[in-house]
Amino acid sequence: MEGEYSCSSSSSSSTTSLEKRKKRQQDHDHDDSQEKPYRGIRMRKWGKWVAEIREPNKRSRIWLGSYTTPVAAARAYDTAVFYLRGPSARLNFPELVFQEGQLHDMSSASIRKKATEVGAKVDAIQTALRSPSSQSKTGSRVNPDLNEYPDPENSDDN
Predict the structure, then answer these.
(1) Of the candidates 36, 59, 58, 60, the residue with the CA atom closest to the CA atom of residue 49
(2) d(Cα 22, Cα 84) in Å, to the nearest integer?
(3) Would the pTM of this model clear 0.70, i.e. be above it?
(4) Longest dimension (CA), the chain
(5) 98-138, pLDDT tens digit by residue?
(6) In angstroms, rounded to a whole number, what is the distance separating the alpha carbons of residues 32 and 38?
(7) 7 pLDDT higher than 50
(8) What distance in Å separates the CA atoms of residue 35 and residue 147, rounded to the nearest whole number?
(9) Rounded to an integer, what distance in angstroms lies between the CA atom of residue 43 and that of residue 68?
(10) For 76-90, b where at least 16 C-beta lie within 10 A, e where not — what string?
(11) DSSP state of 55
(12) Which has more confidence, 97 or 133?
């Protein structure tokens, strides 16, 4: 009887601590859902959004960059997770998954490079769309071509 009591008390105390951990995690998840709109990103104190991802079967992380918009950070994360985990990866924007032939093993440096390229492009577009001065300059053009060099003859600085 004493053995049962000590066993049940230890299991009840572990159950209690397990319940506390679950409650803390649920509270933490609830808080994060308001601050963190996408998977794999977080917001710095000063307002920048950063993305990083853990390498499979390793403790190290791949730094994916710092961005002004959460969408850009999320797209950088999506690019990296797609190259790391393949088509079965859980993406923030599954409708924007790109088809680049077959996936092949890539180094973490090349994954970081591709992810930061995507994030930088999306960040530039998102920032341009938010800025009221750029909207008046671009007119009806919604998505600027980031690979196009500015034409000095058509600049507004003349």
Answers:
(1) 36
(2) 29
(3) no
(4) 93
(5) 655 456 678 889 999 999 999 999 999 988 888 766 445 54
(6) 10
(7) no
(8) 33
(9) 10
(10) bbbbbbbbbeeeeee
(11) P
(12) 97
